[in-house]
Structure formats: C-alpha cells, structure tokens
C-alpha cells in the first residue's frame, strides 16, 4: 500500500550536468546515485530522495516543486546566500517575503530556483 512507501520527488533538468553541479557545489548535497546518463537519484534526510531527470520540459512549472523542512531557516538562508543562491521575493495577498523569508500562520518559508528553473523551498514549522 502506498501509505507505507517512501515518497520521492521528481525534478526535471534541461542540462543534467549543470544541474548536478548546482546540487553538489551550491547546495552541498552528496553525489547522486547515477541511474543512467539522464537520471540521477539524490538522498536526503530520513530516507527521503529525489530523482533528477533530463528533459526539455524543465523550468516550465510556476509552482513550488520540492522543499526541505529545516529547524533553522534563517541560518539555512544565510548559508545558501553565501554560496550564491538568490531567494525570491513575493508580495501577494496573504504572502509577503522580507529578506527572502515569509512568515505564515504555520511557519516561515523561503523560495529559490535551481539552474533548471525549478522552484525550491525551505520551510520551518512554528
């Protein structure tokens, strides 16, 4: 049954080599498991993972595609900024970032894009 299976995010990349560089050099992730020339699997905390696959469709989504839950969003944002990550600024009804971080009724959140145009997120619960 699905309720007992791990969930794995799937992200597109137009240029898998460029994307692998971003996830290694900028985000500091461990080297991925190479599935084949167009598919790599990254592992993260608590058995979570995401598949990065090559496709021309990368960067077309306008929504958050994947996120990490953190206990120190301010520290994570500062660290990623020092590595060259640019955080998005939003000013929508009910959502406004200040210094790249939004405060919501359930926690704090920040968004950035990878080299492939995927919108990624950091989130800290209250």
From TrEMBL:
Domain VOC: 3-125
Top-rank taxon: Bacteria
SUPFAM superfamilies recorded: Glyoxalase/Bleomycin resistance protein/Dihydroxybiphenyl dioxygenase
Matches recorded under PROSITE patterns: VOC (PS51819)
InterPro entries: Glyas_Bleomycin-R_OHBP_Dase, Glyas_Fos-R_dOase_dom, VOC_core
UniProt-recorded name of the protein: VOC family protein
Species this chain originates from: Arthrobacter gallicola
């Amino acid at each position: 049954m699905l309720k007992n299976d791990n969930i794995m995010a799937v992200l597109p990349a137009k240029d898998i080599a460029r994307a692998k560089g971003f996830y290694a050099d900028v985000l500091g992730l461990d080297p991925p498991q190479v599935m084949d020339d167009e598919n790599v699997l990254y592992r993260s905390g608590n058995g979570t993972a995401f598949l990065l696959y090559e496709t021309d469709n990368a960067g077309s989504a306008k929504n958050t595609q994947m996120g990490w839950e953190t206990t120190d969003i301010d520290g994570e944002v500062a660290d990623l900024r020092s590595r060259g990550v640019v955080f998005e600024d939003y000013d929508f009804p009910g959502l406004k970032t200040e210094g790249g971080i939004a405060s919501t009724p359930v926690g704090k959140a920040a968004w950035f894009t990878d080299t492939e145009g995927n919108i990624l997120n950091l989130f800290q619960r209250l």
